[in-house]
Amino acid sequence: MNRPQLTRDGFTLLETVCVMAIIAMLAAVLLPLLPRATSRPRLEAYAMETAALLNRDRTAAMRTRLPVSTKVDGRAIRSGSSPRVVQIPDDVSVDAVLPQRCADALTRRTISFFATGMSCGGTITLSRLGAGYEVRVNWVTGGIEVVPRRVL
Predict the structure, then answer these.
(1) What average pLDDT values come out for the chain (152 residues) when binned by 10 residues?
(2) Which of 76, 94, 109, 144 has the highest CB neighbour number within 10 Å of its CB?
C-alpha cells in the first residue's frame, strides 16, 4: 500500500527562533568591531560647534571689553572665555591657518578677539574623506562663517 507523502511548506516557530538567536549572537560579536567613522553631517556639526565657540568668545570680548583668545591645540579648540572645549575625533583632519603675530605679540596658535569685535583672523579646516568645512574668522570684522569645502 502506498502512503501519500506529506509535504511541509514554511518553517516552524522553533526553527525561526533558532535562526534569530544565531543572527543575534553574530551581531553581538561583530558590531563592536565595526569602525565608528565620523559621518558628513557629524563633520558639519563639529564645524558649527567650533563656529559657535568662536562666536561666544567674540561676544565675551565685546561684552567684557577685554581681549579673548581661543586656543587651537591639536584636536581641541579651547574657549578663552569659558571652560568649553570642542574635541575633534581622530579620523578627522584638522588644519589651522593662524597668524603668527597679533597686536604686536606672538599668538601661539590662537585666534584673538578684541573689545571692538575685531580679530586677527584665522581659518580652521575640518576634513574627512573628500568632505570638509572651513571655519573662517574675518580679521577685519571678526565675523565667523562656516563654508563647505571639497577636499581632493
Answers:
(1) 62 87 89 75 92 95 94 91 92 90 81 92 90 92 90 62
(2) 144
* Neighbouring residues of 92: CB distance < 8 A, sequence distance ≥ 6: 38, 43, 46, 75, 126, 127, 128
The predicted-structure confidence for 70-110, as pLDDT tens digits, reads as follows 999 888 999 999 999 999 998 899 999 998 888 777 777 89
- Residue 104 belongs to domain with CATH number: 3.55.40.10
Distance CA 134, CA 37 (A): 20
What are the Cα distances from residue 84, in Å, to 51, 71, 101? Answer: 13, 11, 25
Q: And the C-alpha cell for 73?
A: 591645540
Report how far Cα 28 is from the mean position of its chain's Cα atoms.
Answer: 27
Task: Residue 116: name the closest of 76, 74, 58 by CA.
Answer: 58
Domain contains 104: yes
Please tell me whether residue 23 adopts helix, strand or coil conformation: helix
**Structural domain contains residue 114:** yes
Which residue's entry shows cell 561684552? 63
Residue 55: phi and psi, rounded to 5, are -65, -40
